[in-house]
Amino acid sequence: TGYITLDEGYVNTGATTSAITFLDGDKGILRYRGYPIEELAKKCRFIEIAYLLIYGELPTKEQFDHFRGMLFRHTMLHEDMRLFYNGFPRDAHPMAILGSVVGAMSTFYQDSLDPHDQEQVDDSIVRLMAKLPTIAAFAYKKSIGQPYVYPDNSLSYCANFLRMMFAVPSEKYEVDQDFVDALNLLLIVHADHEQNCSTSTVRMVGSSNANLFASISAGISALWGPLHGGANEACVQMLEQIRRDGSNVKKYVDMAKDKNNNFRLMGFGHRVYKSFDPRATIIKEACHRILKKQAIKDPIFDIALELEQVALNDPYFIERKLYPNVDFYSGVVYRAIGIPEQMFTVLFAIGRLPGWIAHWVEMHANPAKKICRPRQIYTGPSKREITPMDQR
Ligand code: CMC
């Protein structure tokens, strides 16, 4: 009550303290639990990172084996859950399917909905981490009309996902280790980014003591938007459009500067990074690596490199400190792996899941936790009388 500070878009409002991710936007630093992202991307597996984010420390060998074992036990979907897929239109966006099926997990696992029961929370964490790749791959198989491929728990988290995406019953499927490594790296760099829009959504929903499945489903919806996770799909569509339009990069840079035009350079700019986004640097290197190793010539990578150069030398982008963000090059790597555009944001969701969970768990562990309830400054009419309908 009384004095309210207005901060549209929460540009300067701290919503919480957090011990999960450190981010310095001016220096381009990102660390999970104190470890630099560059090191983690080089030396760790995604499941280790998930454990680190959620439980606070890198796992010992025993802890890792236990966690991995638990995940493997839960990769299958309940057969009734698989039936949901029959009801979605064939051209449904996989992000819509992902959000719906994750939301529906709260109907299948009613024994793990209590946010204050540690055992139930641990169960829901394992179920979400284990099943999200299966839910995602089934959404893709549905969209192309192929039979669903059930999980193979002898494979790693990433290899299993690629197999569920790309294997077909009539052919032998060999997982390419370069693709597994690239996917592992992409999931790691997406795993957390402190109080971003989807994470704040997960916290906001969770603050009412809604269960973890419901909170994560809300986070998936928030991530879908093109200003957030949806930017990776929008970015590749933009690069494709530039290619079809004669690869005239400058024209698009000029369009993005034009204030009478809504067009923005997708994959450029960030609320917090005001110098380079360290994730973009890591992914750009991975792009070079995988395209070279697989001898892939992707014209949109060349367009992306040129676009970056032109924009970074343009006063408009320099003055506003707009640099490529995580979504600028990730799509090129996904394409190299064979992942179609409509699945890019789904991959972001699989990567971000441990971050969402970690923040939800951290919020509930905080004795000062309160329901999130921002205030407003009312700008509508002052008190007035109702005119009877026949006189309006
Ligand atoms: N292209 C052209 N101009 C831009 C862009 C862009 N991509 N991004 C920001 N600007 C301009 C904007 O028009 C504004 O100019 P002015 O001061 O003249 O009004 C100025 O830069 C500041 O932008 P803002 O919209 O006030 O900044 P914000 O912090 O509210 O928005 C952003 C951050 C990421 C939403 C925005 O940069 C954007 O729309 N980028 C394109 C979408 C994108 O790549 N999103 C992915 C973000 S990173 C991963 C993730 O969050 O999922």
From TrEMBL:
Does Lipoprotein appear among the keywords? no
Q: Which Gene Ontology BP terms does the record give? A: tricarboxylic acid cycle
What is the protein's given name? Citrate synthase
Q: Which UniProt keywords apply?
A: Acyltransferase, Transferase, Tricarboxylic acid cycle
For this protein, what is any one GO molecular function term? citrate synthase activity
PROSITE patterns to which the protein is assigned, alphabetical: CITRATE_SYNTHASE
Q: Which gene specifies this protein's sequence?
A: gltA2
Q: Which reaction does it catalyse?
A: oxaloacetate + acetyl-CoA + H2O = citrate + CoA + H(+)
Q: Which domain of life is it from?
A: Bacteria
Catalytic site positions: H270, D327
Q: Which NCBIfam families match?
A: cit_synth_I (TIGR01798), PRK05614.1 (NF004126)
As for family, the record states: Belongs to the citrate synthase family.
One GO cellular component this record assigns the protein to is: cytoplasm
